[in-house]
Specification:
The protein contains eleven helices and 14 strands. By secondary structure, the protein is an alpha/beta fold.
Length: 326
């Protein structure tokens, strides 16, 4: 956020670049949650690269383009450079600044962008799944499936917070029940190592549906069939249990006593099924540490602009660190 309440509002181009889609907006940052305008999403299939998507967006703007940009990308970021994990695009902040005459380009992991916004989400921006007993100074974790499986951590959430991007989705898949082990063995024939992302990414529900004997369908179709197809309902229940186990393991690993937030492109469509599902059973199944897990607040991010808003907050912080938001 802009630290000085009297400072001029910061306007920044923000983007959420995933494996499947690129989403852009113009964000205005002051003291409150960033205001987003000109929100547009483009499919990445067929696009020459990120530069082509940025140019397409800027060409369509009816107002002057901001001179700052913050891009949240689905992959690790090192030294102002990134490569998407699930699409062969390489991204260079300095190159983008030169090509589009941006004064400043901030590049960060997409779940790091979500993490930047967690402490500032407006009321109604998330849904409670487990109330827990929130530690106001405790770390926050955010995770969720999209094209891949992302996760990030927030230490000392608030104005002086530290956001830590992670690649936790690429940790080994940890089977528990017999059918989990059978799934792992089947996946091991095609992928080594078998990571959590292999099971819990966006197409994971469809994969579990097939493992239960279902036919070839995508995740959206399986979700739509849930009320009429017992295998679809079982696949979703299994998926949510496995996701809950992964989330609970992450919460214990990083000590996320401030709360765990679920995000990504898949879970909002399951918002009606998450309460009362096997997710919390998997999350809290921690043996002697079950009370610890049960005290961790768990929320589903429902604000569709959460990653874009978080990117704007990160850009404002970057501008302040570089010597002023103006």
């Amino acid at each position: 956020m802009v630290d000085n309440a009297a400072s001029e509002a910061l306007t920044v181009l923000v983007a959420d670049i995933g494996g499947s889609n690129s989403r852009f907006a113009v964000a205005t940052v002051t003291r409150g949650w960033p205001r987003l305008s000109d929100v547009v999403s483009y499919p990445n299939a067929g696009a020459a690269g990120l530069e082509a998507q940025v140019e397409r967006y800027l060409t369509g703007l009816s107002t002057a383009a901001p001179d700052r940009a913050c891009l949240a990308v689905a992959g690790p970021v090192t030294g102002g450079c990134a490569r998407l994990t699930n699409r062969p695009w390489s991204i260079d902040a300095a190159g983008l600044a030169t090509t589009f005459a941006f004064r400043q380009v901030t590049l960060l992991n997409d779940f790091a962008a979500l993490a930047h916004g967690l402490a500032f989400l407006p009321a109604g921006g998330s849904m409670v799944l487990q109330a827990g007993a929130r530690d106001a100074q405790g770390p926050l974790a955010v995770l969720g499936p999209g094209t891949g499986l992302g996760a990030a951590l927030v230490v000392s959430p608030g104005g002086q917070q530290l956001v830590v991007p992670t690649e936790a989705g690429h940790a080994d898949f940890a089977p528990v029940a017999a059918r989990d082990w059978a799934l792992r063995e089947a996946l091991a024939a095609a992928a080594t190592p078998v990571t959590a992302e292999c099971v819990l990414r966006g197409d994971g529900i469809a994969q579990l549906y097939r493992a239960l004997g279902g036919d070839e369908r995508d995740t959206a179709t399986v979700c739509a069939l849930c009320g009429d197809d017992g295998q679809a309902a079982e696949a979703i229940a299994w998926y949510l249990e496995l996701l809950g186990r992964f989330a609970g393991s992450l919460a214990l690993t990083v000590g996320a006593t401030g709360g765990v937030y679920l995000a990504g492109g898949v879970l909002p469509r399951l918002a009606g099924q998450l309460p009362g599902s096997a997710f919390l059973a998997g999350f809290n199944d921690r043996g002697p540490l079950a009370p610890y897990a049960g005290a961790v607040p768990v929320r589903l991010v429902t604000d569709p602009g959460a990653a874009l808003g978080g990117a704007a907050i990160a850009a404002a912080r970057d501008a302040s660190d570089r010597g002023g938001a103006a």
